[in-house]
Write a structure and sequence with these properties.
Three copies of one chain form a homotrimer. The mean pLDDT of chain A is 96. In chain A, helix 1 packs across helix 17. In chain A, 49% of the residues lie in helices and 9% in strands. In chain A, helix 16 links the parallel strand 10 and strand 11.
Chain lengths: 435, 435, 435
């Protein structure tokens, strides 16, 4: 397979303006201000820590941004093989004109100062969006986010619901919910009303999705338990939370029933408000408690989409764009998307977001899943600058697969392969999320 | 690696006449009559449904074949990336002289009418067999199939046993068994006699294998339960079925014991009658109950061949050609075949039957499993026309692996690599199934 | 990607002298004496048995070495596709000047006799070490090995602890422990003292690691059980073993608690004596009881590093080089090494040690794990001659990955890619094991 062919496809894909369907951008401060915003991304702090840098040095309270970068830079030598550091170099090259092949103790300061000057420009955010060809960026908003003070067409609201499902027993969460909705949740009925208000608010602000990340053991509905029983028990538990009751062990009780009730109520609201429900399946939180901020989560590969069987059957009218954390889950995702009309493949998430895994996963999806049911990629970024190198990585993998499996193996004309690429990169985002 | 090399190997492999060791062909109507027989294959109906076509439109009772194709064709545009649609095009090209690059609303009708004329030829079945170089085709026969009225050398009987193992508690199944064997099954002993009669009948008609598909949770023998106890309890349960007894919950009881007893009785008969026992491991039935016919099954990747440990030890004289549904099970299959003399790798099944997975699986098998213990491929087809594109897909993958891993990496002469390919494609089918 | 590039990288990697960080070499008889020592490796006997050779023929008591080879040779024709047989040919070519492309019934005897002459040379061991560029070789020593009579700088002791953790209830093991330490273990405290003595002895002899292989279900510490309780219960069980008590079923009781206590005591000693603790995770022993010696073990892919969560958190000062048996565990290994400072990737073990799996695993590690946390390869050999072909196989895969993912995809100069290869092949072995 000729590299010229791949390069031509990459060039065509680069011309496609993007909607990034999952990020953690703060719309009030979307772009970076210094290199510390970029090197502060957990991918760099956690890798530096894993390679030997003590957490205390990285996360010293009140540390000056430049000092933080000064401390991280020497560790980059141990990380330069990682694809994450290749993103860093690509950002520095593309945005800041950096042209060394590494960031070292002898060249970092010039880069830091020079880039800070560029980022200080009043239109830096616009520059980044333009250079990255980003038309719009989905957010991950807390359920009580007022969603004001930013352009919701550029920064598209998205209702993140982890706290509601997994922390409703925490008084702080119930207070935030009460404040956001003016409803004191005391049973299943008031829960439903409160969640309904959240959806109303989010949809009125242009929200395009509801989203949640889920642990490997979670199942929205149990094959062997009647859902009516869940509703009844969970309603009692919620009343118990409101009354401050706890079990003998001092823990609030009934989490599992409550989790299922809240989750299913969210799915019902997705149906009512015509929102896709993004499921990000498989993360165990706080596995490494001594880790840096956001660098503590891992996973258990022993999970299955069979846990979502009842859900997919119960909500045929809701689209479920699904991300899986374990690469071994990808074949299930391919197969469930091939069978269930309401299951859609979504991006390459976190520990599966390296070329070695993207390549296999991208190939199998393009070979087995209807082309209108694949959302190719999202950046998961915290700062705008990351979209460029992450999408670039994905486009290179995608171009290789399109060249090998479609142009060479099936004899497709290049433009037909590029059209397939365009659909998974952009077209399906518009279609699935109606934007 | 040069494409010329791969092409030369493909050409050599294409010359090998095939025995297809697992299909669902109806020997009384093996070939298609219209394009609806081909597009009606569940791979197309389920993908079209997954891509948005309502089941009711696809499965309208009494629908005319041509009308069915008319409804499916527009949906092909959403599926043209899939390898399944590439089979469709290859069939139309090779059998019907179709030479467009897609089947669309504007060209389908000519294709439909033209192909119908060709399929109406009296020798169409022979034409397909000849063009596909098919010497023989294994069937999947119900246990009460009389096996009469067809050439059993061409269409080789194979005893399918899912109903016996998993549905013996159903009166209809027991009635079919009684009718087929003249034995009323009322305990373990009469069960054994009845199953013995089935084997006698099948073997007398030239059957070459016993086969079953199994759910991910199934284990033929439990490590921690004595098998004698299973026999005793199951025998009582069977007596209970015969007497119409049910448990308190209204369910017939003891399924698990009965399943194990029937399964082990089948294995004993395989030993007695020298039949290989094809195990197809890992399918969950009816996961998507709103799906089209045969488009409802999925899987749980959390399964293991360790569940078959006691079986493989208990029946050293029985060959077990094994197919796994989850691609993550392939390494276990490679390893168990590398260690157990009675475990043989068998084909690339269903959701693992796409080039992205076949390639990895084929490579690991050829690198780790004795060459005389690998059955390369079967078509799993319902209509004869499918063997051609499916085997063609497999041969292309196989040729790439032979070229890269043997000719290039190990310096084998091409003819030696081709001989290895010939053995997994044809030789081992003859040797394992004694045909 | 040009083959010249790959060849140049292979040549550079071949020049690197090796420390082999995990083998089963007997330092009193490290090299082979006849071809039977090589063909007697379980990889050949088990594959020959799997391909049809009865165990009784292979393992006939008192069989002459030449007769053993004579019996195995005909079966090689069924195994010549395997990578294991490619090692055999490479050994014969490189060490014995064999230049046929197969070992057959007509050429094996000349090879046997010629090689026996070469192996009879007084400096054969030195010849093999030199030709294989082996500077040092780690051993796998029983806990009661006196570690005398060999050069511990060349053959580096390593404390293997499977018996202590999984067989402490066996009187023979407790006797060996008592003899080696002069301590009668009767509770947790005396256990700790005895294990302390073992570490003292091993470290005084230059041991560089503690090691263990673990079944898929094992967890060193349970999330939901307080470890203090484990200590207390296990201490009682140990007293029970010493007193010869057994449970009602005739089995010594409390294995699970004892396993955890011994394992954690080992980890504590690793901390105290600054030894890395090699974990080899995932093997089920004696799955095929009719198999040849060392050819009976398999695995269950349903395991997870989440089972080691508490351990990694409890012992931040201990390095854990980890090998996984199931290839599906590799992504967890990559991810846990990316997050936990004390988790290091270690080699490609057993059923994952074939190019098809090494390639994927090597790529993902180089893309996602800090470069100073990857031990590329060990041979796991029983006889010195195996290091050469096994490391050669790994270097070829590594060179391909370095060429494709670093030189071509990232534009690295070749020498930079080679330096990365050098670090995973040699540098990290020195750094992690302090040798």
């Amino acid at each position: 397979m000729s590299q010229q062919l791949v390069q031509r496809i990459v060039a065509e894909l680069e011309a496609i303006p993007l909607i990034d369907p999952h990020t953690h951008i703060n719309p009030h401060a979307p772009a970076s201000k210094t290199l510390a915003d970029i090197l502060g991304y957990h991918y760099y702090t956690e890798l530096a820590h894993s390679a030997g840098l003590p957490r205390e040095q990285i996360e010293e309270p009140g540390i000056d941004p430049k000092e933080k970068v000064r401390r991280l830079v020497p560790k980059l030598a141990d990380l330069d093989n990682t694809v994450q550091v290749s993103w860093l170099l690509e950002m520095c090259r593309e945005f800041f004109g950096f042209d060394d092949d590494r960031i070292t103790e002898s060249n970092w300061e010039a880069l830091y100062d020079g880039s800070a000057k560029q980022m200080a420009a009043g239109d830096w955010e616009q520059q980044v969006l333009r250079k990255s060809r980003l038309d719009a960026v989905f957010l991950t908003n807390d359920f009580d986010d007022p969603l004001t003070g930013f352009d919701t067409l550029r920064y598209v609201p998205c209702l993140r619901t982890d706290d509601l499902v997994f922390k409703l027993h925490e008084p702080a969460v119930r207070e935030r919910l009460a404040k956001a909705t003016s409803i004191e949740v005391g049973d299943g009925k008031s829960l439903r009303e409160a969640i309904g208000r959240l959806f109303e608010h989010f949809v009125s602000k242009g929200a395009k999705a509801c989203a949640i990340s889920l642990p490997p053991y979670f199942s929205p509905r149990d094959d062997h338990r009647e859902y009516a029983g869940v509703v009844e028990r969970a309603s009692k538990h919620i009343a118990g939370y409101a009354a401050g009751r706890r079990t003998a062990e001092g823990e609030p009780f009934g989490h599992r029933d409550t989790e299922q009730l809240v989750f299913n109520t969210l799915a019902e609201m997705c149906a009512e408000y015509h929102l896709p429900f993004d499921l990000m399946i498989g993360v165990n939180r706080r596995v490494y408690e001594g880790g840096v901020f956001q660098g503590q989560d891992l996973f258990d590969q022993r999970t299955s989409l069979i846990l979502y069987r009842e859900l997919f059957n119960a909500f045929p009218q809701v689209m479920f764009p699904i991300s899986v954390l374990a690469q071994v889950s990808n074949q299930e995702l391919v197969s469930y998307s091939w069978i269930f009309p309401n299951v859609v493949t979504n991006g390459h998430w976190w520990y599966s977001n390296i070329p070695a895994y993207i390549e296999t996963d991208c190939r199998s999806r393009l070979q087995g899943v209807p082309r209108n049911k694949q959302i190719g990629y999202y950046s998961d970024m915290y700062k705008l600058e990351f979209a460029l190198p992450k999408f670039a990585m994905y486009r290179r993998v995608l171009a290789n697969v399109l060249a090998a499996d479609f142009v060479v193996a099936r004899g497709w004309p290049e433009e037909r392969a590029v059209a397939l690429g365009r659909q998974v990169l952009r077209g399906n985002v518009e279609q699935v999320f109606r934007c």
